[in-house]
Amino acid sequence: MSERLSHEEFVKKAIVSLRKEGYKGIHTVYSGFNNAFKKYFEGENPVEITNRLAREGKIVMRPVKGGVMLYLPEEAPNTTDTASEALKKMGLE
What confidence score (pLDDT) does residue 89 get? Predict the structure, then answer.
C-alpha cells in the first residue's frame, strides 16, 4: 500500500468488500470491520468516524443486534415510514 486511504474511502471500500453475497451492508462487529479499522488507523475509534460519516450523509447506519450495519447511501434499506406501512397492512390506516 503506497498511499493511505481516507476514513471515508476505507469505510466505503469495507462496505463493498466485506459484505456477504446477497447483502448490501456489513455488520461492524461480525464482518471484522471494527478491528480492521483500528489496525489500519492505529487505534482510532471506528464508532466516532462512522458516526461522523453518517451525519455527513456519506454512509448510512442502522442499529442491529450486537452492533451497527453500515450501508452506502444509495443501497441502504428504506425505513422512512414503516409505521404507516404496518398500519396499512393491518387495515388500520
Answer: 84
Global pTM reads: 0.81
Domains in the chain, please, with CATH? 7-89 (1.10.10)
Query: What long-range pairs does 68-75 form, CB within 8 A, spacing at least 24?
Result: 68/27, 68/28, 69/25, 69/26, 69/27, 69/28, 70/11, 70/14, 70/15, 70/25, 70/26, 70/28, 70/33, 71/15, 71/24, 71/25, 72/12, 72/15, 72/16, 72/24, 75/24, 75/25
Nearest-angstrom CA–CA distance, 5 and 45 = 16
